[in-house]
Amino acid sequence: MRSVSILILFQQSGYRTFKGFYLEHVQGHLRQEFPRLVSYTRFVDLMPRFLVPLAVYLHLHRGECTGIAFIDSTSLAVCHPARIRQHRVFRVDARRGITSVGWF
Known about the structure:
- The mean pLDDT is 83.
- It is elongated, with a radius of gyration of 19 Å.
- It is mainly alpha-helical.
- It has helices at 2-13, 18-29, 40-46, 51-60.
């Protein structure tokens, strides 16, 4: 369960990458709270084991539905722009768009 705590702390930390959070914050400042801390590489190897306990925790601690939903609007590139006409997998669902970064 300590590993799940680290994953939850990461979500609340404001760090952009888990690697930076683990190496700088957890190994640097939280050694006393997690005395049997493993290396970053080993932690990443063990992460699939934490999926079920994390899902159970999140399910048990979810709030009441208010009717407001948050949707991730991250663009998903399905193919290179030069091959758009050849791509058939998402032909019905996919749409072209532009962001501040470029076309997707």
